[in-house]
Amino acid sequence: MKVAVVGVGYSGFNANTPDLHWKEITLEAAARAYDDAGINPRKDVDSIVTCAEDIWEGFAIFDEFVPDQLGGVLKPTCTVCADFLFGVATAYMQIKSELADIAVVEAHSKASDILTFGETIKFAMDPIWLREIGNAHPYYFAALEMSQYVNECCITEEQLAEVVVKNKNNALRNSSAPYGSKITVEDVLNSPMVFDPMRKLEIAPRSDGAVVFVLANEDVARDITDTPIWVKGVGWWSETSNYDTMSFNAAYAYKAAKMAYKLAGITNPAKEIDIAEVDDRFAFKEFQHIEALQLSKRFETGTLMQEGYFAKDGELPVNVSGGSLGIGNLLEATGGQKALEIVLQLRRLAGRRQVDAETGVAQAWRYIPTASGAVAVFGV
Amino acid sequence: MSVGKKDISCPPEAPGTPLKDSDIKEKKVTYVEDHPDMRYAWTAGQAISRFLNELKEGKLIATKCNKCRRILFPPRIFCELCYKPIDDWVYVQDTGTVQTFSISYIDPDARPLKEPIIVAVIAVDGASKNMAFMHVLGEVEPEDVYIGMRVKAVWKPEEEREGSVTDIKYWKPMEK
Amino acid sequence: MKVERISGLKFHKKQDVAIVGAGMTTFKRRLNETGKELSYLAIKQALEEADMDLSDIEMVVMGSAPDTFDGLHMKGEYLLDGSGGSDRPYMRVFVGGGTGVFAPIAGYWHVASGLADICLVVCEEKMSSSYPHPQSAFKYIWDPILDRPLNPNLIWIFALEMNRYMHVHNIKHEDIALVSVKNKANALDHPCAQLAEKITVEDVLNSEPMALPVRRLDVSPPSDGAAALIMVAPHIARQVTDNPVWVTGVGWALDTTMWTNRDLYFPRYVAEAAKMAYRMAHVTDPRKEIDVAEPYDPFDYKELHHMEGLGLAKKGEAPILTKEGVTARDGDLPCSPSGGLLGVGNPIAATMGVKACELYWQLAYRAGKRQVAKEVTTGVCQAWGDLMQVGTVMVMSNKR
């Protein structure tokens, strides 16, 4: 029995939303998704999965504030403390276990409500070993990983700059991307070195938004829509919470992708995947994740990037939406934005960003200081 | 192994090392202290902004859903049961009925209070049945409070109101 | 023991789920072990009972309540290596206080969907890290605009509900206090108990007032602790034991955030969740078909409240059943034979140990001195959470 995405809705994405409460942006995304699927949430939805972390929201038990705006009052609703793609995996499992015929996945980001963003990330670090080291903004955590990775894989500064250039220019074609700009490699190389070797323009700034997906089992999907996008595979993986034993090589993405590809029956990802959206909240992460998803070989990704292999009109477009560098760091909704782009592309609703694709993969990482991530493979 | 055997009781043991508060105060165990500073500013959004502005004016406002005919208080811009936007804004009265109450002798940090706080869930007149919200009672002795008591809001003077639920100081019994 | 797995692509078939092992640590107000160590200790016990080791585990589900207690953001990620999640698919679920029974429900769908054959479910809680008191962390569960300016304490919401329940059904505090007496006495037979003692109704009624009508002996204490369960597919269960305990029904429901808009005398969120679970388990008359129950009892009146929500008693009837001894360990419908949260302790999510794990041990006839007198086939465990919002229910049976 297969599982399909039958409706999608989103709100945003904006750098800041001073006029709307986060409940209201979620409501907007959910209302659009239900309309897209043509269902009445009060009658048809069997399960709702929210992907949220308490501390991003500023509440001790965020689960309490979830049901009303999603139509989930007195319905099976739960919270998974992870990225949107973990929620997609959860909904997939719920449908496969026949606990639900229609399941809804939601994630949102109201990063503009967080006044002390650096402190919040620091709060996730080990209180005994890591938290009190130095006074720097915790982005240095990613910079340390970047330093090892780019040295190991011989990625040059120019190649890293190409990622930023590609994604931010791609974002210009995306009307929901707040950070698109026409920049060049020189602009990136001239931007300040904030966490050597990481430059300011290589870090995705924050943004707000919400994404809601409606998933259904095969029979229901064929009933309610002509264009179901099949969730061919899901995978998720955690390496460890210990900073010193992390692979620094996105092994979590590799293993999660392996699991998803096995479910999807994909044996040669570099050939069988037509489009990918990977987590690029730090520019070097895009390289790591492309390799982890087996879309290119190690030591070759840098050159391929410079040759335009991953550009919109290249062999395997990556982050055609603008990625997180162009759209912004959406916290737990990052995976949602990635999945959203893949689904829109497969439905041929991507406007000026449209590429030819039948199978796509979305991947997200759980951000600093973790080594966990999830992958989802979609197909027509 | 205990699997399958019916005569082994579970759990077989209770691992764990209990500590006393004094062990920590007297530093008999090693610990790390952290005082996080995390601040948020939630945008109020459309519904709550209006609600708070009306509170500043000394009024209580609710919203109406024409489909289920409920008058929703506290106000929200969508009806969560019909899953549709609300149709109208409606003022409700600042009198109500006590649905339930409690006499609290502890503060939020579980420390004892000298004077107990009387907290109640008050169903507001003019709104639908059970459209209540939480607030405190005043000018009444704890033993005189009962479920079903009619109460009226006592507002702060206009210049002291800030646009918060505390613009109502407390609710007092209507009989007095 | 090396479990033999079926190799090859088997991801497409829905399968039944059995529980073959469980473990828990002691519940105490303050434990020296870190959260990771507590999870490890609980998992070790569960693996020993099932005669497996960590390499057999395919996926891990973690349940843990508010991050604010531990003083960590993304605490699921932090705790993952103590929870056996290293180098594995690992997920943390969270529905407030209902996590104690929701984590096993999440474990259920990991196995039932066919994606895993062996799933480890672990719940951990370390409330003592929060200063000045774990209660302080509950300041942040309230709506910042409607509730927080009034400086509410968590006990308020229980006291308001208890008062409403007592008022609607005309129940006296003495009848409710019987639950506290029963559970704390039951807990004397539980090795992990924090507050087991023989008390009387007078002790409860004379104890320190917290937020009337709630008094100190009506409340369960904050605790540290951890619990673990191993859920497996049928072909694995067969290799491990002749008597697995099957998960026959699961259900969960979340009510509206506007808790003040509800009449608090009846937990309709529990009733909805129970409806879903009973339908799955083909239970049509819970009062007759359920042999043992572990309803969530953070406060004594809550056990009664939830019994009615679970359909084990008619509305207002639960205190009568308690008074008549029906819910005692040797009664017709034993409730909280473990001693529940009132007797053993309340480490929010780790209450899985006294709810789901206890139900499993009862149905596997391994509860030792706590074993109920009657023969048991089907049981139900339940948890509650949030602002009077979440009901999570699991029905288990030792017959398939």
In short:
Chain A has helices at 22-37, 41-44, 54-57, 67-70, 84-96, 117-122, 140-152, 157-171, 185-190, 218-224, 251-264, 269-272, 283-292, 301-307, 323-327, 334-346; strands spanning 3-14, 47-51, 77-80, 102-110, 193-195, 198-199, 208-217, 229-238, 275-277, 359-365, 372-379. Chain A has 380 residues and is α/β, with parallel strands linked by helices.
The total count of helices of chain B amounts to: 2
Shape of chain B: extended
Largest sheet of chain B: 5 strands, antiparallel
pLDDT average of chain B, as an integer?
A: 89
Given the helix and strand composition of chain B, which structural class is it?
Answer: mainly beta
Structural class of chain C: alpha/beta
Q: What is the H-and-E element order of chain C?
A: EHEHHEHEHHHHEEEHEHHEHHHHEE
* Beta-strand content of chain B: 25-35%
List keywords for this structure.
heterotrimer, B: 176 residues, mainly beta, five-stranded antiparallel beta sheet, three-stranded antiparallel beta sheet, 2 helices, 10% helix, C: 400 residues, alpha/beta, Peroxisomal Thiolase, Chain A, domain 1, two-stranded antiparallel ribbon, 15 helices, 33% helix, globular
Topology:
The complex is a heterotrimer of chains A (380), B (176) and C (400).
Chain A lengths: L2 E12 L7 H16 L3 H4 L2 E5 L2 H4 L9 H4 L6 E4 L3 H13 L5 E9 L6 H6 L17 H13 L4 H15 L13 H6 L2 E3 L2 E2 L8 E10 H7 L4 E10 L12 H14 L4 H4 L2 E3 L5 H10 L8 H7 L15 H5 L6 H13 L12 E7 L6 E8 L1
Parallel strand pairs in A: 2-3, 2-4, 9-10
Antiparallel strand pairs in A: 1-7, 1-8, 4-7, 5-6, 8-11, 10-11
Helix pairs in contact in A: 8-13, 8-14
Chain B lengths: L20 H5 L19 H12 L3 E5 L6 E2 L5 E2 L4 E2 L2 E5 L2 E12 L5 E13 L7 E6 L12 E6 L12 E6 L3
Antiparallel strand pairs in B: 1-2, 1-5, 3-4, 6-7, 6-9, 7-8, 9-10
Chain C lengths: L17 E7 L10 H16 L8 E5 L3 H4 L4 H4 L11 E5 L4 H14 L5 E9 L7 H4 L16 H16 L3 H14 L14 H6 L2 E4 L1 E2 L8 E9 L1 H7 L4 E10 L13 H14 L4 H4 L2 E3 L5 H10 L8 H6 L16 H5 L11 H8 L14 E8 L4 E8 L3
Parallel strand pairs in C: 2-3, 2-4, 9-10
Antiparallel strand pairs in C: 1-7, 1-8, 4-7, 5-6, 8-11, 10-11
Protein described:
The complex is a heterotrimer of chains A (380), B (176) and C (400). Chain A has 380 residues and is α/β, with parallel strands linked by helices. Chain A has helices at residues 22-37, 41-44, 54-57, 67-70, 84-96, 117-122, 140-152, 157-171, 185-190, 218-224, 251-264, 269-272, 283-292, 301-307, 323-327, 334-346, and strands spanning 3-14, 47-51, 77-80, 102-110, 193-195, 198-199, 208-217, 229-238, 275-277, 359-365, 372-379. Chain A has one domain (3-115, 205-379): Peroxisomal Thiolase, Chain A, domain 1, CATH 3.40.47. Helix content of chain A is 37%, strand content 19%. In chain A, α8 crosses α13 and α8 (157-171) packs across α14. The mean pLDDT of chain A is 94. In chain B, the strands form 3 sheets. In chain B, strands 8-7-6-9-10 form a 5-stranded antiparallel sheet, with no helix packed on it. Chain B has a 3-stranded antiparallel sheet with strand order 2-1-5, covered by helices on one side. Chain C has a 9-stranded mixed sheet. A two-stranded antiparallel sheet of chain C has the order 5-6. Chain C is globular. The two termini of chain C are 25 Å apart. The chains are: A alpha/beta (380), B mainly beta (176), C alpha/beta (400). The interface between B and C is large, with 62 and 80 residues.
